Amino acid sequence: MSGSNIEVSEARRIVELATPLALVQLAQVAISTTDMVMLGWAGGIALAGGALGLAVFNLMRTIGFGLIVGTSNLVAAAPGDKVPASHLLAALLVAAGAGALAWIAMVAGSSGLRLLGQDAGVAELARDYLIHLAPGILPLFGFYAYRGVVVGRRRARFLLAITIATIFVNAVLDYGLLFGAFGLPKLGVSGVAAASSLAYLAQFAAIVLATHRTIAFSPVSAAAEIVATIRRLLAIGLPTAGSYGSEAAFTALMTLMIGTLGAAALAAQAVVSQITYVVFVLSVGLSHATSVGVSEALGAGDPGRARRVGVTGLALGAIVASAFAVFFLLYASAILSLFSLSASGNEREIHLTAQTLLVVAAFVQLPDFAQNIGIGALRGAGHAQTGFWITLLSYWAVGAPSAWLFGMVLIPGASGIWLGMGLGFAAAAIGLYSAFFRATSNSPVDLGRSEQRA
Length: 454
Description:
Elements: H1 8-42, H2 44-68, H3 71-77, E1 83-84, H4 85-109, H5 120-133, H6 137-152, H7 157-179, H8 189-214, E2 217-218, H9 223-259, H10 263-299, H11 303-330, H12 332-337, H13 348-380, H14 384-410, H15 414-439
Parallel strand pairs: 1-2
Helix pairs in contact: 1-2, 1-7, 1-8, 1-10, 1-11, 2-4, 2-5, 2-6, 2-9, 2-10, 3-6, 3-10, 4-6, 4-9, 5-8, 6-8, 7-8, 9-10, 9-14, 9-15, 10-11, 10-13, 11-13, 13-14, 13-15, 14-15
């Protein structure tokens, strides 16, 4: 398979685009990480409540991101120096519709958490958290729409400055609204969620200004052009959202399973999930960059180069995931101390559970990286729907039963649940890359339409 060798030049192009994207993703996750750190200061119950609410929010956020992420593929494949305005308008309309539905789902679903076997006090805190975080989903999805345009034109560097500023705004508001500092009202756990909503609004306003100052748009000739672009975007976005949403729902199920083990286990899950999510977003940057590179190669009629891009992205992901796995194994206690968890004191039980879980997570993140980059590679090849079915089967036919078997029977506890989850990710990675090689062995595809011919 000479056409799928790793190339330094392709690695450089992927890293060049993935670096600002990964840094932006890291900065984005720093918002929720700051939330978790602040809640850790308020105690284990507050941390567990915030974690439960964040699991629901992440499900909505991931689905919305999947719906909009194809914007960068369409923009990357569009000829000319100017970006068709229809691409941006279509993305914003999809973002608005998805954001409104997510808002409703977060508010309506927040009252049902107690019915899923969760601690009553934790479920009540999670409900308040979601109600105050729900308004932030609309500007966040709008940010994703603009980001798709910026990434598609490889002008992602100013995103980092915007997101770093957002982290600072969020941190100040977090502390102020959690503890009643800086003349702000003391809202507790709800204040942390409200701070994030305000930070997402500021972030959206900043990217709107920056994008229209740096990128030129061609005018829309007719409303039909926007409708056609929405269809193309959803042809990519619906199966991608299905893939991403399936994974997010899968991990949310793992959180709910661990929540039935008690508040201490749920708090440990919250910390470890947040730590690994910080690393996982690096794979999002690599996935996005790999996807754009594959789209560019197939748009130029070069499936051999597309395969090389896909393999190179996978190799880079393996290197990054392995490096952080070693870091987790060597410095588990030091990492956990950032969340006010120590081996001695009131949170000792949470610390011990989290420490064991972090060791397991170090290995689970390797197949998690691989499957996420595989989703991007297959999306770039125009086969997002195939990726959806592969991930759906992998998560729910392999991962979920394995998590129950390991976590509830063979190795009772949170670590067993994570081992089962890792098997689901491994199955997805193998299936996705097998499909990618099949897809790129054929003639070049037409993005957004290939599934009709697949």
